[in-house]
Design goal:
Length: about 350
Amino acid sequence: MKIAIKGPIISDGEQFIYDWFGIPATSPVKVLNIIEEAIQNKVNELTVVINSGGGSVFSASEIYTELKKFEGNVNVEIVGMAASAASVIAMAGTKIVMSPTGQLMIHNASTTAWGDYRDMNHTGEFLQKVNQSIMNSYTAKTGKATDELKALMDAETWMTAQDAKEAGFVDAIMFEQEVEAKANVERPDLVNGMLPQEVINKMREQLANDKSLTVVNSATQPAKHIKDKGNGVSATMNIETLKNEHPELFEQVKNIGFEEGKKVENQRIKEIEEITVAGSHDIVKAAKFENGMSAGEVAMAILKNEKNRKENLLIDRKDDATLVNGVINADFTPPDKENEFSNTLDKVLGGKKND
């Protein structure tokens, strides 16, 4: 029986939001339902196909635990990317194989925090505990020491199939089938493919208030439907249906996305302006209004431009020095070159030559 770990790793309560928009995502209950079905049907082998950029480490831990509890074989196939929390799920495999075009990434857990130094210290301690929990899954598979794994996680280590096999994270590299390696590009505008929390909260609010909407959670049922207000006929929901049948909700969600995008763009402009230096006006202008370069890309362009400017300045100085030496060492100037000589001397000395 096949289990697909695609898109971000999310909580059970968020699954129906992703389903409604048709965005691939994986929650614990979605995986558990398939495992329970396999047990009921006395299936003794699971194939877990992974292409995910990660997400909630606690949801990943729950999925990892349920897979490890399964009494049969768990064959894990990393066909695109198993990054962050998704790499934890991959470690549950009885056998783990990886596409030659795949990537595996491990790093430290991260979160946001607010408060005084005590809150910050507490958050730091909490994250270190989470990191240790993550390491446990890696240690069980690779046998590596904590210090070595900590160094790999601190460095945010990306591994090719060959790297992962050599390090003991996978057992073999897949050669018999070719799989398209999208590596979490379903929604490149989302962090790890995850919807902004503002969108999720707004959707919860709207769905709670609009009694005409009936959304089926694909984690518990195989299809998702929206009840039509007019005749009660169900139809599959997608972005186009949302736009046509629920324009107010569509506009609200779109506006949230617009506001988020505006914040990101304002921050990009601010970062670019902070690194602006003399002589970089054209680069900065193009970055702001034409090519959409990031602050880091602008910084590299400015450095390259400054390097070229200095090299050209050095060349100009050498040319001027050569010209001055030629004027000083000249013993004879043909009569028909007198005016040219005079103009050249004016240029070098910066004014009219004295009679």
